[in-house]
Automatic annotation (TrEMBL):
Pfam families: Pentapeptide (PF00805), Pentapeptide_4 (PF13599). It comes from Nonomuraea diastatica. This is Pentapeptide repeat-containing protein. InterPro entries: 5peptide_repeat, Pentapeptide-BTB/POZ_domain.
Amino acid sequence: MNFDGEDLSHKALAERLAAGETHVFRGCDLTEADLWGAPLAGARFESCVLEQTDFRKADLDGAVFTGGGGMRTRFNDADLIDVTFTDVDLSSAQFGGALLTDVSFTGCRMIGAALTASRGTGFTVTRSNLTLANLGGCSLRGEHIEGVRFDDADLSGCDFTEATLSDCRLIGTRLLNTTFAKADLRGADLGQPDDAKLRAFAGAVINQTQANAILAARGITVL
C-alpha cells in the first residue's frame, strides 16, 4: 500500500496495513500516528514527519527511512533487523528493548536519543550527531565509526574494542566502565582528559599530540 503526501497524524494505522505487503510512505505526516505492532517489514519512509510516531513492537525488518523525522519517535520493543536510517532526524528517539541487528544510521541527527537496553547484535553509525545520546551498554566492537559527535553522550558500559574512530568527538562524554581496548582513537577529539577517560582508554592506540595533551593535563611536559 502506498501513501503519498497524506496527513496520517494522530491516526491508528496498524489495522489498515495488511501483513505480507510492502508499504511505502512518501512525504506523509505521521505526527503521533499509532503504528504499535504494525506489520512494516520492508516498508519505506521517505521524507515523512515522524514527530512522536509510535512504532513500539512493530515489525520493521528491512525497512528504509530516508530524510524527514521528528522528535521523540518511539521504537521501543520493535524488531529492526537490516534497517537503514539515512539523513533522518531521530532526536530523543527511544529504542529501549528494540531488537537492533545490522541497523545503520548515516547522516542522522540523534541528539538525546536513547539506545540503552536495546537488544540484538548492534548497529553502525556514520556522520551523525549523538550529542547527549544514551548508548549505555551498547556494543560497537570492531566498527569503523566516522564523523560522529558523541559530545556529552553517555557511553557507560559500551564496548569499543578494536573499533576505529575517525573524525569523531568525545567532548564531555561519560565513559564509566567503557572499553576501548585495541581501539584506534588517533582520528578522534578526545576532549579534556580526566581519570575516567584515561581508564577507558587503557589499551587504545592514540597519537603523539593526544599523548602530550594527556601528560600536560597532569603537569608533565614532554620535550
